Structure formats: C-alpha cells, structure tokens
C-alpha cells in the first residue's frame, strides 16, 4: 500500500518550497505518459530514517508504524503531511484513519490526487488536484477524458465547499490547446477562488523536451483572465531532492 515515506521540500504547486513529510502510496489507475513514479503494486516500502538525510531503510510492511515514523521525521519547519502517489484515494479508509490521528496530534494534512474519486474524499487542510489533458494519455478516447475531467471538477468543488485550501495543477506540453486551457480556467472560476498551477512537463523516458517559455507565458495570460495562475516547474528535480 505505501511505497515510501520521507521529508523534503515541496517541488511543485501552490506550496512550492514548503517542508513536507511525504507518504507515497502505490498504484494508480491512470498511465500518464509523463509520470515519473513506478506503477507496480508489490515490493517493499522504504523509509527515510533521519529527516532530510536521504538515507532509507526497507520495510516489508509499515502501515501500522506510519504515525510513529512521521513523528520521528517531524521538524519545526514542517508545513503538512502529504498523501501522494500513485493515487492515495485507492485507499480511502486508511487515508481517513491516518488523517484523524495526525490531526489529533496537531499535523496539517495535504492530499495530492488525480481527482477521479470524488466520492472517496474526506477532510483535509490542503489539496492539489491534477487536471489531466487528452495528450497525457495514449490510446484513450474523448469520452474517457471528458468523464475524468468531470470527476476532477467535482472533486475540486467538493473540497472547496468543505473548506479545504484546494488548488488545481495542469502539466502542459508544447502542443497543449490554448482553447482547452481557457475552458478549464473558466470552469474553475465558476467553482470559486481556485489557484491554477501551470507546470511545464519535465523530460522523462517518454517525454524528451519540456515546454517553451513562449508557450508558458501564452497559457498563463489566458488563465489570468479567469483565475489566479502561477507557473510551478518541478524544482526538486534540479535541486537534487526527492
């Protein structure tokens, strides 16, 4: 269920630069072509033993020890505990259990999700919802994308109405449609005061080039007509952090 637990700087999104403890869950139903996380169910979990050290110990199973591990990794500058993945809402009951314990101990909780399970949401202090684009997938039709997009908007709206500080994030390519980005920004503005983070795609095995500065500026200008917008590249990668 859990792939790794570690302390690092948030490298993307609205809270970029803040210190988090990341609890990364295994598996995701989607297969985005830019994803940099393995999508395998098995294997051991790894835990950073000293906060920020980058030194890990392998665990066969750590679900019952997670809270104790988080307590050991806690530092005075900690912003929140992030449930990330993979897709954490594949395990809604466990997420709810951990959240309740952590909040009782004074932690803030942060959900990073693809937004495809609005019915599985619980209470979080902060949330980041990835809005997927058609070009993020191979061999998926328009109906698949539209159904996913509808669920993403529903997830954002439910979180917003529940009082969660939620923002949206979109990984953009050079070929990303300006018309589609405008539609998304407009739809977000109808929900409420939602920040939209534009993230230029990071090169991977399947993605060889990032997004041009010109394209980023054009998309941000379009979004700025409707929502608060910011560009947040993945800074943890060039900083050599997890």
What does this structure look like?
Strand 9 (195-200), helix 5 (213-223) and strand 10 form a beta-alpha-beta unit. The longest helix has 20 residues, at 142-161. It contains six helices and ten strands. The radius of gyration is 17 Å and the shape is globular. Helix 4 runs parallel beside helix 5 (213-223). 38% of the residues are buried. The protein has a single domain, classed as TIM Barrel (Alpha-Beta Barrel). It has 242 residues and is an alpha/beta fold. Helix content is 29%, strand content 24%. The chain has a ten-stranded mixed sheet, with helices on one face.
Ordered list of secondary-structure elements with their pairings:
Elements: E1 2-9, E2 19-25, E3 45-48, E4 56-59, H1 66-73, E5 78-84, H2 92-104, E6 109-113, E7 126-130, H3 142-161, E8 165-172, H4 178-191, E9 195-200, H5 213-223, E10 228-231, H6 235-238
Parallel strand pairs: 1-3, 2-5, 5-6, 6-7, 7-8, 8-9, 9-10
Antiparallel strand pairs: 1-2, 3-4
């Amino acid at each position: 269920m859990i792939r790794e637990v570690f302390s690092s700087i948030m490298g993307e999104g609205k809270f970029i630069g803040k210190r988090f403890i990341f609890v990364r869950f295994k598996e995701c139903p989607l297969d985005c072509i830019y994803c940099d996380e393995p999508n395998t169910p098995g294997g051991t979990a790894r835990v950073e033993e000293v906060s920020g050290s980058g030194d890990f110990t392998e665990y066969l199973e750590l679900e019952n020890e997670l809270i104790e591990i988080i307590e050991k990794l806690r530092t005075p500058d900690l912003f929140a505990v992030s449930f990330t993945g993979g897709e954490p809402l594949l395990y809604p009951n466990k997420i709810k259990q951990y959240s309740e314990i952590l909040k009782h101990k004074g932690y803030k909780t942060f959900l990073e999700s693809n937004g495809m399970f609005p019915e599985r949401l619980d209470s979080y202090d902060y949330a980041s919802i990835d809005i997927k684009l058609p070009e993020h997938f191979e061999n998926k039709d328009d109906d698949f994308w539209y159904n996913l997009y509808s669920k993403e908007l529903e997830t954002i709206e439910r979180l917003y109405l529940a009082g969660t500080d939620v923002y949206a994030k979109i990984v953009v390519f050079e070929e990303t449609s300006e018309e589609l980005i405008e539609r998304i920004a407009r739809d977000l503005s109808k929900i409420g005061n939602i920040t939209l983070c534009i993230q230029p795609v990071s090169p991977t095995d399947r993605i060889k080039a990032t997004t041009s500065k010109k394209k980023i500026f054009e998309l941000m200008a379009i979004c700025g007509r409707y929502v608060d917008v910011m560009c947040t590249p993945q800074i943890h990668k060039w900083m050599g952090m997890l």
